[in-house]
Every structure is written in structure tokens, then in C-alpha cells.
Amino acid sequence: MLGASFALVASVGILRLPDFYTRIHAASKAGTVGSVLALLALAIVSVETAEVLRAIAAIVFFFLTAPISAHLLGKAAYSAGYKMWDGSVLDEMHDGPARPLEPGGREKTVDRRPIL
User: Fold this and answer.
1) Which residues pair with 90 in a beta bridge?
2) Cα(116)–Cα(111) distance, rounded to whole angstroms?
3) Which tens digits make up the pLDDT trace of 72-109?
4) Under a CB-based contact definition with an 8 Å cutoff, are residues 67 and 51 in contact?
5) How many CB atoms lie within 10 A of CB 69?
6) Collapsing DSSP states into helix, strand and coil, what is residue 83?
7) Average pLDDT over residues 23-47
8) Which residues have C-beta within 8 Å of that of residue 5, sequence separation ≥ 6?
């Protein structure tokens, strides 16, 4: 039941969150935890060793692949030009140092004149 609850939270997050980047975050985090909990329940109630080992292997596979795939999807979306949500505070994927954003997603203007 707990795994199904996390899967439900992931699906609601995909539907309700404002932009692509936060949606893949919900899908990768809550979806992974939901799947892992369901596989863990399978491993606990299973009586055959082969099923338990397969469930454990699947859990390891989920923990290794979900964060990497979410990161690569986000990076590809950023490179393709997908805009961040207007309420985003910081753009850490910008080339160079992370740039703070104003409300509306525009880059905050910074006075770069030398202090004399």
C-alpha cells in the first residue's frame, strides 16, 4: 500500500507541477520509491529464493538508473531550450556560475562594475 501511495504521489506530481523539470523530479523520486517499496513487499512475501533475488536486482537497477535518466532528461530538455517555470529562483545549468532569476524567469541583472 505504501508503494502504491508513492506511485500515486508521483502521478499527481506529474499532473500538477508547473514545468518539465519539476515533473521529472516527481516522477523519478516518488516513482522510484513507490516501485522499490512494491518490489520490497514482493521480496518479503515471496518464498522462492529466485524471486527474492530478482526483486533485489530490480531494486538495485531502479536506484542506479532512475536518477541518472532523470538528470540526462533534464539536461537534454535544457539544451533543447525548454523554459524553466516563472517561479524558479536559480538556474544552475547556465554555462558559467549559477545565475539568480527574477520573478518571471528572467535573468537578474547584476552590476559588474569594479569597486574603486
Assistant:
1) 100
2) 14
3) 998 888 888 888 777 777 777 776 555 566 655 555 55
4) no
5) 13
6) coil
7) 91
8) 34
